[in-house]
Amino acid sequence: MSGRTTAATPPPGAAPPARHPEAPAPGEIIGSHYEYCFGCGGGVAHGLHLQTRAGEGVSVTAEFQVKEAHQGAPGLAHGGVLATALDETLGGLGWLLRVIAVTGRLETDFVRPVPVGAVLHLEAEVVAVAGRKIFCTATGRIGAPDGPVAVRADALFIEVKIDHFIENGRKQEIQAVLADPDQVKVARAFEVNP
Ligand SMILES: CCCCC/C=C\C/C=C\C/C=C\C/C=C\CCCC(=O)SCCNC(=O)CCNC(=O)[C@H](O)C(C)(C)COP(=O)(O)OP(=O)(O)OC[C@H]1O[C@@H](n2cnc3c(N)ncnc32)[C@H](O)[C@@H]1OP(=O)(O)O
């Protein structure tokens, strides 16, 4: 069952996604975009620590082990945390297109409860692109890449420029990022996008 709305459905005339020639090779790990990202940063003690990997075509995979700090009901993952795992995995698709994009809409189906200790195997792919709008989908399966589907999402990501972060982020973090040459390299990597 899918609760996809028209907002997350590509309009007629949307283009099939094109893998960028400089996209990471299938199997290559896509590094964290920001050390203090709750989804992928190594600097967040109770974060999800997702490590996303490039897949075939315009797709990515990742694994998320549910920890005690991620509970909603006793012994079960919080739905918002699972949505975050889907969102972060979908965010990795920007690296395959070589665009910076943020979540505009995330429509999530919770199909099965996910116990603490379980590993959620996540997969996301771009379905279509229309201008700045990137239509994509993701699933999270319990225990194995072909395990039972626990969560799935349809999403609309919107391409933005670096200024989106510079103009909207809190000053102290933005200044710290701009002072870090490695982080600037990550942020600027997509600016020239033929
Ligand atoms: C130097 C410092 C930089 C440091 C950064 C470091 C690294 C950066 C690299 C990568 C980071 C990138 C991503 C992170 C990766 C993963 C994390 C997971 C992803 C997230 O967690 S990310 C956070 C949550 N996310 C937001 O924080 C967005 C808040 N939001 C906005 O900032 C605006 O809302 C925005 C920009 C989305 C759009 O604003 P806008 O003004 O640019 O464009 P506009 O409104 O015109 O929309 C254009 C077309 O999209 C349609 N549209 C828009 N929104 C829609 C919706 N909700 N439903 C249906 N349609 C929608 C319109 O209807 C129109 O469609 P049409 O063109 O057909 O009319």
Automatic annotation (TrEMBL):
Region feature Disordered, mapped onto this chain: 1-26
Membrane topology type: Peripheral membrane protein
UniProt keyword list: Apoptosis, Cell membrane, Cell projection, Cytoplasm, Fatty acid metabolism, Hydrolase, Lipid metabolism, Membrane, Transit peptide
GO molecular function term, any single one: hydrolase activity
GO cellular component: cytoplasm; membrane
InterPro entries per the UniProt record, alphabetical: HotDog_dom_sf (IPR029069), THEM4/THEM5_acyl-CoA_thioest (IPR052365), Thioestr_dom (IPR006683)
EC number: 3.1.2.2
Residue ranges of the TM segments: none
Top-level lineage group: Bacteria
Catalysis performed (reactions): dodecanoyl-CoA + H2O = dodecanoate + CoA + H(+); tetradecanoyl-CoA + H2O = tetradecanoate + CoA + H(+); (5Z,8Z,11Z,14Z)-eicosatetraenoyl-CoA + H2O = (5Z,8Z,11Z,14Z)-eicosatetraenoate + CoA + H(+); hexadecanoyl-CoA + H2O = hexadecanoate + CoA + H(+)
Protein name, per record: Acyl-coenzyme A thioesterase THEM4
